[in-house]
Amino acid sequence: MTARRVAIVTGGSRGIGASIAEALAKDGFDIAISYARNAAAADETVARITALGRTARAYRAGEGDGAARDMIEQVVRDFGRLDTLVCNAGIYPYARVQDMTVEQVDATLGLNVRAVMLETMAAVKHMKRGGRIILIGSVFGERAPFPGISLYSATKAALGGFVRGAARDLGPEGITINVIQPGPIDTDMNPANGEGADMLRGFLCVPEYGKPADIASMAAFLARPESDNITGAALNVDGGLAA
Ligand code: NDP
Q1: What would the pLDDT profile of 119-145 be if each residue is shown by its tens digit?
Q2: Which residues form the Ketoreductase domain (predicted)?
Q3: For residue range 52-79, what is the model confidence (pLDDT) as tens digits?
């Protein structure tokens, strides 16, 4: 019998994270998701996963300094093990550098970078060979094609540096770490019919928004044993925005 496997998906209540959580559940993982405020959406994701015959549970993100790390420890206590961590939760501030606030800088670094590092640090302590860390960055980590995204781009670029360095640390333990860099994906954060959507389509080779499932397929692939040899990589699923 295949051993039970457990995955954590941060920001799994809606959008890309919810789609990743479901894809991993279809591949046989039991799932812990975190969310910020939207308990109803988190409950819906949990119900969809439970309907697939897997165990699922939602965790509201805490506020304190070590909250991201504490959430990982709580999940390991509840589920008994951890095989895959998907750091998906993120925010997308829009402000020119002339207008950015200290609060925006702290909040964006806090969730998009600091929490990712704390979660990874906690998760690898519990992972065995075959463990997987999958970060959700952005193609804006390597391209900034319009004004107002310097802060967001900086945080997503940081993930590329983090996975390259951490892959060196974790490789000998048989744990891989990669960042998926989506282009425009139709979610509440970036609706395909939103203001600016036509401009974004203009940057693409395939001139249509991607779907959350496009990112979920890549995440599911990275979580499988056949991706054992992929680590330290930034993988674009971006409609060709970076081309
Ligand atoms: P959404 O805004 O649609 O969803 C965000 C999710 O993150 C929600 O589940 C939300 O919970 C959760 N969340 C927010 N803050 C926290 C927190 N502090 N702790 C835990 N969970 C939190 O975003 P997307 O699905 O569009 O984006 C997901 C990731 O993909 C982000 O990292 C984003 O930067 C990245 N990305 C998205 C692109 C896009 O075009 N959509 C393009 C490139 C990258 P709640 O429901 O409670 O609010």
Answers
A1: 999 999 999 999 999 999 999 999 999
A2: 5-188
A3: 999 999 999 999 899 999 999 999 999 9
SS3 content of the chain, % helix, strand, coil (to 5): 45, 15, 40
Ligand 1 lining (C-beta closer than 6 Å) = 10-11, 13-17, 34-38, 41, 61, 88-90, 92, 111, 136, 138, 182, 184-185, 187-190
pLDDT tens track for 90-105: 999 999 999 999 999 9
What is the CATH T-level fold of the domain 5-237, as seen in this structure? Rossmann fold (3.40.50)
Number of H helices, E strands in the chain: 8, 7
Report CA(88)–ligand 1 centroid distance (Å): 6
Beta-ladder partners of 185: 210
Alpha carbon of 2 to ligand 1 centroid (Å): 32
With 0.70 as the threshold, say if the pTM is over it.
Answer: yes
**Identity of the residue numbered 191:** P
Place of tokens 């420890």: 73
Cβ atoms within 10 A of the Cβ of 70, count?
15
